Hints:
The structure holds 2 protein chains of 2 kinds. Chain A is mainly beta. Chain A contains 4 helices and 19 strands. In chain A, strands 1, 2, 3, 4, 5, 6, 7, 8, 11, 12, 14 and 17 form a 12-stranded mixed beta sheet that branches. A 5-stranded mixed beta sheet of chain A has the order 9-19-18-15-16, with no helix packed on it. Chain A has a two-stranded antiparallel ribbon with strand order 10-13. In chain A, a hairpin with a 2-residue loop joins β2 and β3 (21-24). The radius of gyration of chain A is 17 Å and the shape is globular. Chain B is mainly β. Chain B has a single domain (13-18, 31-244), classed as Fumarylacetoacetase-like, C-terminal domain (Fumarylacetoacetate hydrolase, domain 2, Alpha-Beta Complex), CATH 3.90.850. Chain B has helices at residues 47-51, 114-117, 192-200, and strands at residues 4-5, 21-22, 39-43, 70-74, 79-80, 85-88, 95-105, 121-131, 151-159, 170-175, 178-184, 210-212, 221-222, 227-232, 236-244. In chain B, the strands form 3 sheets. In chain B, strands 3, 4, 5, 7, 8, 9, 12 and 13 form an 8-stranded mixed beta sheet that branches. In chain B, strands 6-15-14-10-11 form a 5-stranded mixed beta sheet, with no helix packed on it. The A-B interface holds A 44-45, 47, 50, 65, 71, 73-80, 92, 113-114, 138, 140-148, 151-153, 204, 207-209, 211 and B 37-38, 40, 43-44, 60-64, 66-68, 70-73, 75-77, 89, 110, 137-143, 146-148, 202-206, 248.
Amino acid sequence: xxxxxxxxxxxxxxxxxxxxxxxxxxxxxxxxxxxxxxxxxxxxxxxxxxxxxxxxxxxxxxxxxxxxxxxxxxxxxxxxxxxxxxxxxxxxxxxxxxxxxxxxxxxxxxxxxxxxxxxxxxxxxxxxxxxxxxxxxxxxxxxxxxxxxxxxxxxxxxxxxxxxxxxxxxxxxxxxxxxxxxxxxxxxxxxxxxxxxxxxxxxxxxxxxxxxxxxxxxxxxxxxxxxxxxxxxxxxxxxxxxxxxxxxxxxx
Amino acid sequence: xxxxxxxxxxxxxxxxxxxxxxxxxxxxxxxxxxxxxxxxxxxxxxxxxxxxxxxxxxxxxxxxxxxxxxxxxxxxxxxxxxxxxxxxxxxxxxxxxxxxxxxxxxxxxxxxxxxxxxxxxxxxxxxxxxxxxxxxxxxxxxxxxxxxxxxxxxxxxxxxxxxxxxxxxxxxxxxxxxxxxxxxxxxxxxxxxxxxxxxxxxxxxxxxxxxxxxxxxxxxxxxxxxxxxxxxxxxxxxxxxxxxxxxx
Lengths: 252, 248
């Protein structure tokens, strides 16, 4: 089943997908553009992975002073960053390079600590799509990636749906792509994850307790490019849907 | 006279600033951590902490001193209360104690000006930001800072009106009763108001969020079996223990 959190007619609702439409608990059927889409999960801890696709690593090689990689490059985000499907993300006026990152997002469903790889997927509630923007201009070499690059208000789109794990039999065989104004710019497949979903859960839970609502953004493949105000950015992942976001200029 | 202000800050917002002083005996009881939404830390805000790096700030991998505040997040499983026993990982000899002032947000802070920033503060608390010592600030692993229990804080949140000078507070750390560090929040590159202004320029701080001002220079180390006690003028005294990690 596909779940959404939406605002409609003055209240926040849980909705499920019914064909192209949204079905509320009371039977109301709504079109996608009739509602305000919220991130499909009330977030707990938000963990994101840097450089978790081999091709993206190569793409960033010039900028990275990265050598041997001994563990996943994980960092944290705050709830201020999240925004729902069909949301608007601001591009700072002084930025020269702001790019999207289409990512498979894993939502934890049960508390776990020190889980082994073989059992790790049992703790997953479901999957969704993230578009985790970065503003490269603000990159500094202190506690990378610094929050000014990666934790800006509304710069991590999430959704549209939380798709139950039971409906995603193999999270490592999903094609993903990003389109800007309809033009494909980024392609990848989750089979190319360097650290796959069970590996990430095993790694993270080895030193921290994962809890329901925690979200792991698994990283992005190559193909990032600059986006400008007015651009419509769609991130698609096979079986999970398409996440639309519009870039706007930074207002007052 | 000993006056203790009960923690009343809560994510609900303005109510956080309502304090009701009452006398209480804290004793040795373990406290729940104050109700914090998201905890943000600030690295190298103290001038002497940054200066201690010397010329390294110009060398790779850093190449330049930090321009914007260097921030990090301590996720929810890090929060621990006054009196907590925090596990030291088996592979760490000691933990670094980042004793510092915690700023608790009371009103949403989005793009606030420095002159108005303090009006967004509900109150202050004492934070023991624990880390496994790590040699590089470039891209440290979450394993060093984001472990369960690695942010004891409290015992309470003192309403901001009782802390008129947050940029002139003495912070004293004792480990097993011996003084291990003493510094003043006056040494910060960015004081409370300026830090809130610069952070809220790109990141909204919500009611209940915690923004830590930054640790002092030469943060002390503590080992399993030791007791850490951090006192901040007019804010309180936070005590916690370190224990060896239980076997997996």
